[in-house]
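Good morning,

Attaching, inline, the backbone tokens for the sequence recovery test we're adding to the shared suite. The designed sequence is right after.
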């Protein structure tokens, strides 16, 4: 699906470049009278500032995750599963992506922002990623678990038979661990923009966006542990920070397409597990990598 979206993005850029190449040229001296500042110093310059404008974009993402240690705690147990592998769960390309009733099912991105200067903006964003622990996989068990755990007590199953340092194979019989509704990053961001290429008329252009984000992780975790668990309600489970870089192609005065990469970390200290609030919980530190493709609007 990534290759299909990439081809669509590049095709749209090529088509729009061809169309705008046919625009009536303006004198080359116009490049010295523009409003934009850029580290790339393009030959031509934009004639209209972004300062004071709003923007919004919507699109979809693919994500990947570094191995993570997951700590489980509650009455009668405190253990960590080390270097656990996990993947995202992208929805297959289809009508779901354009059906208004279903567009929030895939891994989506929504951002809304305001230009405080021509080349700086502040934004609010919601990145809906999905995190699913791979099964089967073999990991190291650190800590302890009694044969009976939680409150009221239940059997700990295979985890109660393990000693510190043992290896255990995670499968459907002992653990299901997902942030699929989802691994939600609600963040405030600041962005900088540098024009890479500007058409002779200054009406279409390509720029680079770089930025930093910080915010809260609000997952809806689906966990099955000790024969207990549920698809929980959303909760503030921790915080995160990220850095991003991408390219925007403004093919209309008010519309653009964008491809970006984002990487960051999240520290989740309050993940719901068995459904017994205040009794059982999990925590983990996750490095994530995200590739997103969006359609944006300025107004």
């Amino acid at each position: 699906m990534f290759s299909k979206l990439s081809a669509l993005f590049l095709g749209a850029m090529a088509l729009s470049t061809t169309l705008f190449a046919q625009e009536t040229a303006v004198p080359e001296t116009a490049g010295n009278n523009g409003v934009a500042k850029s580290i790339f110093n393009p030959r031509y310059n934009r004639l209209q500032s972004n300062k004071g404008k709003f923007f919004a974009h919507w699109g979809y993402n693919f994500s990947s995750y570094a191995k993570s240690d997951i700590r489980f705690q509650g009455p009668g147990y405190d253990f960590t599963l080390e270097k656990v592998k996990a993947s995202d769960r992208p929805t297959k390309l289809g009508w779901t992506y354009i059906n208004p009733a279903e567009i929030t099912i895939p891994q989506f991105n929504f951002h809304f922002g305001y230009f405080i200067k021509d080349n700086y903006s502040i934004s609010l964003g919601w990145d809906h990623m999905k995190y699913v622990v791979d099964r089967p996989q073999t990991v190291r068990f650190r800590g302890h678990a009694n044969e009976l755990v939680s409150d009221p007590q239940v059997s700990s199953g295979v985890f109660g038979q393990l000693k510190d340092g043992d290896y255990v194979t995670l499968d459907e019989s002992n653990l299901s661990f997902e942030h699929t509704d989802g691994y939600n990053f609600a963040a405030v961001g600041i962005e900088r923009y540098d024009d890479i290429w500007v058409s002779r008329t200054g009406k279409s252009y390509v720029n680079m966006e770089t930025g930093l984000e910080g915010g809260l992780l609000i997952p809806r975790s689906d966990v099955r542990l000790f024969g207990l668990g549920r698809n929980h309600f959303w909760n503030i489970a921790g915080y995160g920070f990220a850095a991003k870089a991408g390219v925007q192609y403004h093919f209309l005065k008010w519309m653009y397409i964008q491809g970006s990469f984002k990487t960051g970390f999240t520290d989740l200290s309050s993940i719901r597990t068995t459904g017994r609030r205040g009794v059982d919980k999990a925590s983990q530190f996750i490095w994530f990598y995200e590739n997103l493709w969006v359609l944006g609007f300025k107004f």
